[in-house]
Design a protein that fits this description.
Blueprint (H helix, E strand, L loop, with lengths): L7 H31 L7 H29 L4 H29 L3 H16 L6
Helix pairs in contact: 1-3, 1-4, 2-3, 3-4
């Protein structure tokens, strides 16, 4: 099956899933920013932040490896399997962005969140709705 046989309803459903994932991450970031700007937050323990950074590198590495594997398998798949792979890949990228949001929430350092958000948007480009 080619992408021309994918129903418009399926395309809309995939677009809605992708938008929902992104909106959830953006809302989490906005709420975290609001809480951070309100002040009066206790400082986090540096050792726990160090642990979060180590976990972050592991999550990023695992996500990159998994997305590379999924991307390599994407070309020869049927449309229904391809749609499943797309949702899985976007969910993996969302996990990276949400982890960045957690680091931002706990430490006040927005760099992990912003990097995760760019990673997620990049996954939308690498795993597009339609076949190239």
């Amino acid at each position: 099956m080619t992408s021309s046989h994918v129903s418009p309803g399926d395309q809309r459903a995939l677009a809605l899933i992708r938008i929902s994932l992104l909106v959830g991450v953006l809302i989490f970031g906005a709420l975290t920013w609001w809480l951070q700007s309100a002040g009066d937050r206790p400082t986090s323990d540096p050792s726990s932040l160090r642990t979060l950074r180590i976990a972050g590198f592991a999550i990023w590495g695992a996500a990159i490896a998994l997305l590379a594997f999924l991307r390599s398998r994407l070309a020869g798949l049927s449309d229904s399997t391809r749609r499943s792979y797309l949702v899985i890949s976007w969910g993996v990228a969302e996990a990276v962005a949400l982890f960045g949001g957690v680091v931002y929430f706990l430490s006040g350092d927005a760099r992990w969140y912003v990097a995760g958000l760019f990673f997620m948007i990049g996954s939308f480009l690498v795993f597009p709705l339609r076949k190239a």
